[in-house]
Design goal:
283 residues; 14 helices; 2 domains; single chain; alpha+beta; three-stranded antiparallel β-sheet; Arc Repressor Mutant, subunit A
């Protein structure tokens, strides 16, 4: 049986600082949220302390032991996180979608090319890699550019709600479609658009797979300080072999060390040189 690995106090403190698990640095406004995402590179939306990785909800709570309550509708921190998510979508400065393995994630613009190199589907490959219903939805959306859920479902001719939502999940995972805004009156709906409409430069940038894996691993390790076995794969949706390739590339360039099998930590020379983008001027 493999030994249970624990994160040292040094690296727990490192995560508290970089993932905003401190009351003095918690996220309160959409500007805070956008700068938090830019700092960490990518973050989940509503995950709590039971899942590793940076999380907007945990950053709103400002503590490392944040737990999502059973009745989230009455929880002020969960409500604020949901409101910030909608505001971030509407402002369009951060990429938000349901990505690999159905994980709802925020991406800083600088990370979009790397995620797209791993999971993105280019137009030439759509007929081979996308399902029939996803291609039907995409055909309609390309003609209209932006549509609410009900209109998009009607015009695509998909009568079954489950089938339609699977098609939307497929298009989001392929980094082709994103929600651009949310409305609650008269009923709740997302408005959908093409991701290239908001992030044309980032999505057209060509990145090789090895570079993408290395930079995704670098972004996570910069905030985490140390990566335990399987942790990067669990956070991002990468396969464990791909996550290992990314981490080993960091070791090869001296950014990380590997003190134990499957464990990677920031090299001592890099622990105090991780850029802190949270202090950038706010717009």
């Amino acid at each position: 049986m493999s030994p249970i690995l624990h994160i040292s106090q040094e690296f727990d403190d490192h995560r508290d600082e970089h993932w905003r698990r401190e009351a003095t640095r918690q996220v309160e406004t959409v500007f805070d949220a956008e700068h938090f995402i830019e700092q960490v590179g990518f973050a989940s939306c509503l995950t709590d302390c039971r899942r590793p990785g940076p999380s907007l909800y945990v950053a709103v709570c400002g503590r490392r032991d944040a737990m999502m309550p059973r009745h989230v509708q009455k929880d002020p921190e969960a409500s604020l996180t949901w409101t910030l998510k909608d505001e971030i979508m509407g402002r369009g400065r951060v990429y938000y979608a349901k990505l690999a393995r159905g994980k709802s994630m925020f991406l800083a613009p600088r990370m979009i090319p790397y995620f797209h190199a791993i999971w993105g589907v280019r137009k030439a490959d759509e007929s081979r890699r996308l399902g029939r219903h996803a291609r039907g939805v995409l055909r309609v959306l390309r003609a209209e550019w932006e549509m609410a859920t009900a209109d998009l479902r009607l015009d695509s001719g998909i009568t079954d709600r489950t089938t339609f939502m699977r098609a939307m999940d497929e298009l989001q995972a392929a980094m082709i479609v994103i929600p651009s805004s949310a409305y609650y009156v008269p009923t709740f709906t997302y408005v959908w658009t093409l991701s290239v409409a908001r992030f044309p430069t980032e999505l057209r940038r060509r990145i090789d797979r090895d570079t993408a894996l290395r930079e995704i691993a670098r972004s996570f390790l910069s905030g985490a300080g140390v990566t335990l076995p399987g942790e990067l794969a669990r956070v991002t949706g990468l396969s464990r072999p791909d996550a290992g390739r990314g981490n080993r590339a960091l070791v090869a360039e001296g950014f990380a060390t590997t003190p134990a099998l499957g464990v990677y930590q920031l090299s001592r020379a890099c622990r105090h040189c991780v850029p802190d983008r949270s202090t950038e001027v706010r717009e």
